[in-house]
Automatic annotation (TrEMBL):
Keywords: Membrane, Transmembrane, Transmembrane helix. It comes from Micromonospora sonneratiae. The lineage of its organism: Bacteria, Bacillati, Actinomycetota, Actinomycetes, Micromonosporales. The chain crosses the membrane at residues 12-34, 54-74, 86-102, 108-132. This is DUF4383 domain-containing protein. The keyword Transmembrane applies. It comes from the Bacteria.
Length: 151
């Protein structure tokens, strides 16, 4: 997209923020797996990890997503921006869907209100890191600056 900045001066900061978000997700996932070891995969047992509701299924999903974000951050080369954007949109959808099913039997990831809020915040942070972390050629930079001036 021509409206997203290319070679933003704060790109290393956004990349670090994306990496820290991946580290948080991986840590949350590992702690959730430890806390829920021996429980059912999609148990609705109101187990709290770091103040958030989590069962074994959501903990494994968080750990895998966190590792994926960390790998993307380590690789760089705009792979991190694609991963951060896709997973950011995914976390936003997950947070909204969890709000819809929170007090029903369909809450198979055992989300609480705090988990839904954190999911939305993680989605926004990953989107921000993905939108501002892109690197490109001089032609892409000129196209972005021209698009910005037209607005």
């Amino acid at each position: 997209m021509a409206h997203n900045p290319v070679n933003h001066p704060a790109r290393p900061v956004y990349r670090a923020i994306g990496g820290l978000t991946g580290l948080y997700l991986a840590g949350f996932g590992v702690l959730g797996v430890i806390e829920n070891s021996g429980a059912e995969f999609f148990a609705q047992n109101d187990t709290l990890v770091l103040g958030q509701g989590a069962n074994l299924g959501y903990s494994i999903i968080s750990a895998v997503v966190g590792i994926l974000v960390l790998v993307g951050t380590a690789i760089g080369r705009n792979i991190d921006t694609v991963i951060n954007k896709l997973l950011g949109y995914g976390f936003m959808v997950l947070g909204l869907a969890s709000l819809a099913v929170m007090r029903t039997d369909a809450n198979f990831l055992d989300f609480s209100m705090s988990t839904a809020i954190v999911s939305m915040v993680i989605g926004m942070v990953l989107l921000m890191a993905g939108m501002y972390g892109k690197i490109g050629t001089e032609e892409e930079v000129r196209a972005w600056q021209e698009a910005r001036l037209l607005l």
